[in-house]
Specification:
The chain is an alpha/beta fold. It has one domain: Dihydrofolate Reductase, subunit A (3-Layer(aba) Sandwich), CATH 3.40.430.10. The chain has helices at about 50-60, 70-75, 115-125, 135-145; strands at about 5-10, 15, 35-40, 45-50, 65-70, 90, 105-110, 130, 150-155, 165, 180-185, 190-195. The strands form three sheets. It has an eight-stranded mixed sheet with strand order 7-6-5-8-1-9-12-11, sandwiched between helices. A two-stranded antiparallel ribbon has the order 2-10. A hairpin with a 4-residue loop joins β11 (about 180-185) and β12 (about 190-195). The chain is globular and about 40 Å long. It starts with a strand and ends with a strand. One of its GO terms (biological process) is riboflavin biosynthetic process.
């Protein structure tokens, strides 16, 4: 059964980037260890602690497809056509880009909404999980009851302001299960099941 897993690296006060979209020290844990880890792009190798490497191997090996928003796509240039995790990326957008230099990359632009993107991603995942990024997209998916689990990589930093993990989420409240906890180096990995309302 395909699980929709929302995941993000987040500050202690709930931000996934500062107000200029920079991640600052949030991603330092991807380079503070001696265990190499590679997600989907062989040119993007992280060096993390042993605990974080085991956590990432377990999590990322389950992901078949990712769903992201247009903002993240634009900020990363779609990782130059190579999915950061999984085999395919569905981008939720109002308009598909007409000038992206990687037209044959495994990216699908979905213009008829988040629910459609998640349904299409589930169909393409081949029984593996669907990854969903943080921000407004996550808040909308949580409000619509489309998220099965939440994975948070909690970093000991306080931003004070920036891009919120759940965007402009306004409820209703989402009930989560007790966390599974993995302590890394300068990061705590948390996994919560999302209970249906």
């Amino acid at each position: 059964m395909t699980t929709v897993t929302a995941s993000a690296t987040v500050s202690l006060d709930g931000f996934i980037a500062d107000d200029t979209d920079a991640v600052g020290p949030l991603f330092d844990w991807y380079g503070n260890g001696d265990v190499p880890f590679n997600g989907g792009d062989p040119q993007r190798v992280f060096h993390v602690s042993a605990a974080s490497a085991a956590h990432l191997r377990d999590t990322w090996s389950r992901i078949g497809v990712a769903v992201i928003g247009r903002r993240l796509f634009d900020l990363t240039n779609g990782w130059n056509g190579r999915p950061a995790v999984g085999d395919h990326v569905f981008v939720v957008t109002h308009r598909a880009p007409t000038d992206w230099p990687f037209p044959d990359a495994p990216f699908t632009f979905v213009t008829d909404g988040l629910e459609s993107a998640i349904a299409r991603a589930k169909g393409a995942a081949g029984g593996r999980d669907v990854s969903l990024t943080g921000g407004d997209l996550l808040g909308q998916a949580l409000s619509a009851g489309l998220v099965d689990e939440l994975r948070v990589d909690l970093v000991p930093v306080v931003f004070g302001r920036g891009v919120r993990l759940f965007g402009a989420f306004a409820g209703p409240p989402a009930l989560l299960g007790d966390p599974e906890i993995v302590a890394g180096d300068r990061v705590t990995h948390l996994r919560y099941a999302v209970h249906t309302r």
